[in-house]
Design brief:
Layout: E1 10-13, E2 22-25, E3 31-35, H1 47-63, E4 67-71, H2 75-87, E5 92-96, H3 100-106, E6 113-116, H4 118-121, H5 124-137, E7 140-146, H6 152-159, H7 165-182, E8 188-193, H8 197-208, E9 216-217, H9 225-241, E10 247-249, H10 256-269, E11 278-281, H11 292-304, E12 311-315, H12 321-324, E13 330-335, E14 338-343, E15 346-352, H13 356-365
Parallel strand pairs: 3-4, 3-10, 4-5, 5-6, 6-7, 7-8, 9-10, 11-12, 12-13
Antiparallel strand pairs: 1-2, 13-14, 14-15
Helix pairs in contact: 2-3, 3-5, 6-7, 7-8, 8-9, 9-10
Bound molecules: iron/sulfur cluster.
Protein backbone atom coordinates (compact mmCIF):
# COMPACT_ATOMS: atom_id res chain seq x y z
CA UNK A 1 0.00 0.00 0.00
CA UNK A 2 1.31 3.41 -0.96
CA UNK A 3 2.37 5.49 2.01
CA UNK A 4 0.73 8.91 2.38
CA UNK A 5 2.39 11.89 3.99
CA UNK A 6 1.13 15.33 4.92
CA UNK A 7 2.38 18.43 3.17
CA UNK A 8 3.97 20.41 6.00
CA UNK A 9 2.59 23.77 7.03
CA UNK A 10 4.82 26.81 6.67
CA UNK A 11 7.02 28.18 9.42
CA UNK A 12 8.75 31.55 9.20
CA UNK A 13 12.30 31.89 10.43
CA UNK A 14 14.30 35.11 10.71
CA UNK A 15 13.04 38.56 9.77
CA UNK A 16 14.17 40.30 12.95
CA UNK A 17 16.44 43.33 12.58
CA UNK A 18 18.58 42.87 9.46
CA UNK A 19 18.11 39.09 9.43
CA UNK A 20 16.74 37.55 6.23
CA UNK A 21 13.31 35.94 6.55
CA UNK A 22 13.02 32.38 5.24
CA UNK A 23 9.96 30.18 4.97
CA UNK A 24 10.31 26.50 5.84
CA UNK A 25 7.74 23.90 4.77
CA UNK A 26 4.79 24.09 2.40
CA UNK A 27 6.01 24.27 -1.19
CA UNK A 28 9.05 26.33 -0.24
CA UNK A 29 12.49 25.13 -1.37
CA UNK A 30 14.18 22.73 1.05
CA UNK A 31 16.70 24.75 3.04
CA UNK A 32 20.25 23.75 3.92
CA UNK A 33 21.66 24.12 7.41
CA UNK A 34 25.01 23.58 9.00
CA UNK A 35 26.38 23.99 12.50
CA UNK A 36 29.16 26.26 13.67
CA UNK A 37 32.01 24.06 14.87
CA UNK A 38 33.89 26.35 17.27
CA UNK A 39 33.21 27.87 20.64
CA UNK A 40 32.25 31.54 20.66
CA UNK A 41 33.13 32.65 24.19
CA UNK A 42 34.85 36.04 24.03
CA UNK A 43 33.73 36.89 20.49
CA UNK A 44 31.60 39.72 21.87
CA UNK A 45 34.73 41.60 22.95
CA UNK A 46 36.92 40.60 20.03
CA UNK A 47 36.13 42.53 16.82
CA UNK A 48 38.70 40.55 14.82
CA UNK A 49 37.08 37.18 15.66
CA UNK A 50 33.62 38.64 15.10
CA UNK A 51 34.65 39.87 11.66
CA UNK A 52 36.21 36.48 10.82
CA UNK A 53 32.95 34.74 11.79
CA UNK A 54 30.92 37.22 9.76
CA UNK A 55 33.13 36.57 6.71
CA UNK A 56 32.90 32.81 7.08
CA UNK A 57 29.12 32.99 7.39
CA UNK A 58 29.08 35.04 4.17
CA UNK A 59 31.21 32.38 2.42
CA UNK A 60 28.88 29.61 3.62
CA UNK A 61 25.93 31.59 2.28
CA UNK A 62 27.63 31.88 -1.11
CA UNK A 63 28.03 28.08 -1.10
CA UNK A 64 24.29 27.64 -0.57
CA UNK A 65 23.84 27.56 3.20
CA UNK A 66 20.53 29.03 4.38
CA UNK A 67 20.67 28.70 8.17
CA UNK A 68 23.45 28.15 10.72
CA UNK A 69 23.06 26.77 14.23
CA UNK A 70 25.41 27.76 17.04
CA UNK A 71 25.90 25.85 20.29
CA UNK A 72 25.17 28.18 23.21
CA UNK A 73 26.28 26.32 26.33
CA UNK A 74 26.67 29.29 28.72
CA UNK A 75 25.84 32.97 29.27
CA UNK A 76 29.13 34.22 27.83
CA UNK A 77 28.40 32.32 24.61
CA UNK A 78 24.85 33.71 24.60
CA UNK A 79 26.21 37.27 24.76
CA UNK A 80 28.59 36.58 21.89
CA UNK A 81 25.85 34.85 19.93
CA UNK A 82 23.71 37.98 20.08
CA UNK A 83 26.57 40.02 18.60
CA UNK A 84 27.02 37.46 15.82
CA UNK A 85 23.28 37.60 15.03
CA UNK A 86 23.54 41.39 14.75
CA UNK A 87 26.55 41.13 12.41
CA UNK A 88 24.94 38.98 9.70
CA UNK A 89 21.77 38.68 7.66
CA UNK A 90 21.92 34.87 7.81
CA UNK A 91 19.21 33.40 10.08
CA UNK A 92 21.02 31.90 13.07
CA UNK A 93 19.69 29.28 15.49
CA UNK A 94 20.73 29.04 19.15
CA UNK A 95 21.21 25.44 20.25
CA UNK A 96 20.17 25.24 23.89
CA UNK A 97 20.35 22.31 26.27
CA UNK A 98 19.34 22.07 29.93
CA UNK A 99 19.18 25.76 30.87
CA UNK A 100 16.14 27.61 29.51
CA UNK A 101 17.60 30.92 30.71
CA UNK A 102 20.19 30.69 27.92
CA UNK A 103 17.34 30.69 25.40
CA UNK A 104 15.78 33.74 27.06
CA UNK A 105 19.13 35.53 26.97
CA UNK A 106 19.66 34.78 23.25
CA UNK A 107 16.18 36.11 22.51
CA UNK A 108 17.39 39.56 23.60
CA UNK A 109 19.07 39.68 20.15
CA UNK A 110 17.78 39.13 16.58
CA UNK A 111 18.00 35.35 16.89
CA UNK A 112 16.03 33.54 14.16
CA UNK A 113 15.18 30.39 16.10
CA UNK A 114 15.87 28.46 19.27
CA UNK A 115 16.58 24.77 19.19
CA UNK A 116 15.51 23.03 22.38
CA UNK A 117 14.97 19.48 23.46
CA UNK A 118 12.02 19.99 25.82
CA UNK A 119 12.95 16.65 27.41
CA UNK A 120 16.10 18.14 28.91
CA UNK A 121 14.83 21.69 29.53
CA UNK A 122 12.85 20.48 32.51
CA UNK A 123 9.54 21.61 33.98
CA UNK A 124 6.77 22.75 31.68
CA UNK A 125 6.86 26.32 32.96
CA UNK A 126 10.41 26.62 31.57
CA UNK A 127 9.34 25.39 28.14
CA UNK A 128 6.41 27.80 28.34
CA UNK A 129 8.74 30.70 29.17
CA UNK A 130 10.82 29.95 26.07
CA UNK A 131 7.73 29.61 23.85
CA UNK A 132 6.28 32.90 25.11
CA UNK A 133 9.58 34.71 24.58
CA UNK A 134 9.85 33.31 21.04
CA UNK A 135 6.31 34.43 20.32
CA UNK A 136 7.07 37.94 21.61
CA UNK A 137 10.27 38.19 19.55
CA UNK A 138 8.93 36.53 16.37
CA UNK A 139 11.46 33.71 16.66
CA UNK A 140 10.79 30.12 15.64
CA UNK A 141 11.60 26.96 17.59
CA UNK A 142 13.08 23.69 16.52
CA UNK A 143 12.02 20.83 18.77
CA UNK A 144 14.82 18.29 18.74
CA UNK A 145 14.35 14.81 20.14
CA UNK A 146 16.76 11.92 20.10
CA UNK A 147 16.82 8.38 21.41
CA UNK A 148 18.60 9.56 24.55
CA UNK A 149 15.57 11.64 25.53
CA UNK A 150 12.75 9.09 25.24
CA UNK A 151 10.22 9.32 28.09
CA UNK A 152 10.28 6.46 30.60
CA UNK A 153 7.14 4.67 29.33
CA UNK A 154 8.28 4.73 25.70
CA UNK A 155 11.76 3.60 26.67
CA UNK A 156 10.24 0.59 28.42
CA UNK A 157 8.17 -0.27 25.35
CA UNK A 158 11.29 -0.07 23.18
CA UNK A 159 13.35 -2.16 25.57
CA UNK A 160 10.63 -4.82 25.80
CA UNK A 161 10.43 -4.95 22.00
CA UNK A 162 6.81 -3.70 21.90
CA UNK A 163 7.66 -0.50 20.03
CA UNK A 164 10.39 0.33 17.54
CA UNK A 165 12.83 3.06 18.50
CA UNK A 166 11.78 4.97 15.39
CA UNK A 167 8.10 5.04 16.39
CA UNK A 168 9.11 5.94 19.95
CA UNK A 169 11.07 8.91 18.58
CA UNK A 170 8.07 10.01 16.53
CA UNK A 171 5.73 9.60 19.53
CA UNK A 172 8.12 11.57 21.75
CA UNK A 173 8.16 14.41 19.23
CA UNK A 174 4.35 14.29 18.97
CA UNK A 175 4.02 14.69 22.75
CA UNK A 176 6.27 17.76 22.68
CA UNK A 177 4.23 19.19 19.80
CA UNK A 178 1.04 18.71 21.83
CA UNK A 179 2.49 20.99 24.52
CA UNK A 180 3.24 23.64 21.89
CA UNK A 181 -0.30 23.27 20.52
CA UNK A 182 -1.71 23.84 24.02
CA UNK A 183 0.38 27.01 24.19
CA UNK A 184 -1.11 28.04 20.84
CA UNK A 185 2.31 28.31 19.20
CA UNK A 186 2.77 26.86 15.73
CA UNK A 187 6.04 28.39 14.53
CA UNK A 188 8.13 25.32 15.13
CA UNK A 189 9.77 22.49 13.22
CA UNK A 190 10.64 19.04 14.52
CA UNK A 191 13.76 16.95 14.27
CA UNK A 192 14.08 13.33 15.32
CA UNK A 193 17.67 12.26 15.36
CA UNK A 194 18.95 8.74 15.02
CA UNK A 195 22.38 7.68 13.84
CA UNK A 196 21.02 4.76 11.82
CA UNK A 197 19.77 5.43 8.30
CA UNK A 198 16.77 3.13 8.63
CA UNK A 199 15.73 4.55 11.99
CA UNK A 200 15.96 8.07 10.60
CA UNK A 201 13.77 7.09 7.64
CA UNK A 202 11.25 5.19 9.77
CA UNK A 203 10.91 7.91 12.43
CA UNK A 204 10.41 10.68 9.86
CA UNK A 205 7.97 8.62 7.78
CA UNK A 206 5.94 7.77 10.87
CA UNK A 207 5.74 11.41 11.94
CA UNK A 208 4.98 12.74 8.45
CA UNK A 209 2.17 10.22 8.03
CA UNK A 210 0.43 11.71 11.10
CA UNK A 211 1.31 15.43 11.29
CA UNK A 212 1.74 18.40 8.95
CA UNK A 213 4.62 19.86 10.93
CA UNK A 214 7.80 20.71 8.96
CA UNK A 215 10.63 18.28 9.56
CA UNK A 216 14.29 19.10 9.94
CA UNK A 217 15.95 15.94 8.66
CA UNK A 218 19.37 14.74 9.69
CA UNK A 219 21.30 11.60 10.51
CA UNK A 220 22.96 12.41 13.78
CA UNK A 221 26.60 11.62 14.51
CA UNK A 222 26.80 10.30 10.96
CA UNK A 223 30.57 9.96 11.15
CA UNK A 224 33.58 11.20 9.18
CA UNK A 225 33.31 12.63 5.68
CA UNK A 226 32.79 9.51 3.56
CA UNK A 227 30.68 7.57 6.07
CA UNK A 228 28.56 10.61 6.83
CA UNK A 229 28.01 11.49 3.18
CA UNK A 230 26.90 7.93 2.40
CA UNK A 231 24.50 7.71 5.37
CA UNK A 232 23.04 11.16 4.80
CA UNK A 233 22.62 10.59 1.07
CA UNK A 234 20.77 7.32 1.61
CA UNK A 235 18.44 8.70 4.27
CA UNK A 236 17.80 12.10 2.67
CA UNK A 237 17.25 10.86 -0.86
CA UNK A 238 14.71 8.31 0.36
CA UNK A 239 12.81 10.88 2.42
CA UNK A 240 13.07 13.80 -0.01
CA UNK A 241 11.64 11.71 -2.83
CA UNK A 242 8.61 11.08 -0.60
CA UNK A 243 8.30 14.82 0.01
CA UNK A 244 9.56 14.52 3.57
CA UNK A 245 12.11 17.04 4.84
CA UNK A 246 11.63 20.80 4.75
CA UNK A 247 15.14 21.59 5.92
CA UNK A 248 18.23 19.39 6.05
CA UNK A 249 21.53 19.26 7.85
CA UNK A 250 24.28 16.87 6.84
CA UNK A 251 26.15 16.11 10.05
CA UNK A 252 29.82 15.34 9.39
CA UNK A 253 33.04 15.13 11.37
CA UNK A 254 34.28 17.57 8.75
CA UNK A 255 33.97 21.23 7.82
CA UNK A 256 30.70 23.18 7.60
CA UNK A 257 31.62 23.79 3.94
CA UNK A 258 31.56 20.04 3.28
CA UNK A 259 28.22 19.74 5.09
CA UNK A 260 26.72 22.47 2.90
CA UNK A 261 28.19 21.12 -0.35
CA UNK A 262 26.91 17.62 0.46
CA UNK A 263 23.45 18.96 1.28
CA UNK A 264 23.39 20.98 -1.94
CA UNK A 265 24.43 18.04 -4.10
CA UNK A 266 21.82 15.77 -2.49
CA UNK A 267 19.10 18.35 -3.13
CA UNK A 268 20.24 18.75 -6.74
CA UNK A 269 20.33 15.02 -7.40
CA UNK A 270 16.87 14.67 -5.81
CA UNK A 271 15.52 17.42 -8.07
CA UNK A 272 14.95 19.82 -5.17
CA UNK A 273 17.44 22.44 -6.39
CA UNK A 274 18.45 23.50 -9.82
CA UNK A 275 20.97 25.84 -11.39
CA UNK A 276 24.38 26.75 -10.10
CA UNK A 277 27.71 25.27 -11.05
CA UNK A 278 27.86 21.58 -11.96
CA UNK A 279 31.30 20.09 -11.49
CA UNK A 280 32.58 17.28 -13.70
CA UNK A 281 36.01 15.92 -12.93
CA UNK A 282 37.92 12.79 -13.74
CA UNK A 283 39.28 10.49 -11.05
CA UNK A 284 42.84 10.75 -12.51
CA UNK A 285 44.91 7.85 -13.79
CA UNK A 286 48.35 7.07 -15.26
CA UNK A 287 47.60 9.19 -18.33
CA UNK A 288 47.20 12.36 -16.36
CA UNK A 289 49.19 15.39 -17.40
CA UNK A 290 47.60 17.64 -14.82
CA UNK A 291 46.97 17.44 -11.08
CA UNK A 292 43.17 17.15 -11.09
CA UNK A 293 42.95 16.55 -7.35
CA UNK A 294 45.05 19.59 -6.45
CA UNK A 295 43.14 21.80 -8.88
CA UNK A 296 39.80 20.68 -7.44
CA UNK A 297 41.04 21.26 -3.89
CA UNK A 298 41.90 24.83 -4.86
CA UNK A 299 38.81 25.53 -6.96
CA UNK A 300 35.88 23.47 -5.68
CA UNK A 301 34.45 25.91 -3.14
CA UNK A 302 35.17 28.94 -5.31
CA UNK A 303 33.36 27.37 -8.27
CA UNK A 304 30.38 26.18 -6.23
CA UNK A 305 30.00 29.67 -4.77
CA UNK A 306 29.57 31.26 -8.22
CA UNK A 307 26.15 32.47 -9.23
CA UNK A 308 26.38 31.02 -12.74
CA UNK A 309 24.42 28.16 -14.29
CA UNK A 310 27.34 26.40 -15.93
CA UNK A 311 29.11 23.04 -16.12
CA UNK A 312 32.84 23.01 -15.41
CA UNK A 313 35.02 20.03 -16.36
CA UNK A 314 38.42 19.32 -14.82
CA UNK A 315 40.16 16.47 -16.63
CA UNK A 316 43.57 14.91 -16.20
CA UNK A 317 44.56 14.50 -19.82
CA UNK A 318 43.88 15.71 -23.35
CA UNK A 319 43.27 12.19 -24.63
CA UNK A 320 39.90 12.12 -22.92
CA UNK A 321 39.63 15.62 -21.45
CA UNK A 322 37.90 17.79 -24.07
CA UNK A 323 36.01 14.78 -25.43
CA UNK A 324 34.62 13.63 -22.11
CA UNK A 325 34.01 17.20 -21.06
CA UNK A 326 32.59 18.40 -24.39
CA UNK A 327 29.27 19.40 -22.88
CA UNK A 328 31.00 21.57 -20.31
CA UNK A 329 30.78 25.33 -20.70
CA UNK A 330 34.42 25.51 -19.66
CA UNK A 331 37.02 22.91 -18.83
CA UNK A 332 40.68 22.42 -18.16
CA UNK A 333 42.89 19.43 -18.96
CA UNK A 334 46.58 18.61 -18.79
CA UNK A 335 49.06 17.83 -21.57
CA UNK A 336 52.74 17.23 -20.82
CA UNK A 337 53.35 20.19 -18.57
CA UNK A 338 50.81 22.34 -20.38
CA UNK A 339 47.21 23.02 -19.49
CA UNK A 340 44.53 23.46 -22.09
CA UNK A 341 41.37 25.40 -21.49
CA UNK A 342 38.38 24.35 -23.56
CA UNK A 343 34.87 25.61 -24.02
CA UNK A 344 32.13 23.27 -25.29
CA UNK A 345 34.87 20.85 -26.33
CA UNK A 346 36.88 23.40 -28.37
CA UNK A 347 40.37 24.29 -27.17
CA UNK A 348 40.60 28.05 -26.58
CA UNK A 349 43.94 28.42 -24.74
CA UNK A 350 47.09 26.34 -24.19
CA UNK A 351 49.35 27.58 -21.40
CA UNK A 352 52.17 26.48 -19.10
CA UNK A 353 50.79 24.56 -16.13
CA UNK A 354 52.10 27.24 -13.76
CA UNK A 355 49.78 29.77 -15.43
CA UNK A 356 46.81 27.42 -15.50
CA UNK A 357 44.90 28.88 -12.54
CA UNK A 358 45.19 32.48 -13.74
CA UNK A 359 44.21 31.74 -17.33
CA UNK A 360 41.37 29.48 -16.23
CA UNK A 361 40.06 32.29 -14.03
CA UNK A 362 40.23 34.76 -16.94
CA UNK A 363 38.28 32.45 -19.21
CA UNK A 364 35.81 31.62 -16.46
CA UNK A 365 35.10 35.28 -15.81
CA UNK A 366 34.50 35.86 -19.52
CA UNK A 367 31.53 33.43 -19.51
S1 LIG B 1 40.62 12.10 -18.25
FE1 LIG B 1 42.65 11.21 -18.66
S2 LIG B 1 43.70 11.26 -16.66
FE2 LIG B 1 41.51 11.52 -16.25
S3 LIG B 1 40.84 9.45 -15.83
FE3 LIG B 1 40.41 9.87 -17.98
S4 LIG B 1 42.20 9.05 -19.04
FE4 LIG B 1 42.78 9.24 -16.86
Amino acid sequence: MEKKFYEPRTVSIGGNGNVERILIGGKEPVTIQTMWKEGIIGVKDDPVRLEAIRNKIAQLKMLGCDIIRFAVPDMESAESFIEICKATSMPLVADIHFDYRLALKCLEGPVAAIRINPGNIGARDRVEAVVNACRDKGAAIRIGVNSGSLPHDLRELVESGKMSRAVALSETAARECAVFDELNFDQFVVSMKASSVQETIDANEDFASKYNIPLHVGVTEAGPLITGVVKSTLAFSHLLKEGIGSTIRVSLSSSPENEVITGLEILRECGKRSGGVTLVSCPRCGRMGFDVHGFMDRWQNKLLSMKKDITVAVMGCVVNGPGEGKHADIGIAGANGKAIIFKKGEIVRTVDEKDADNVFEEELNSL
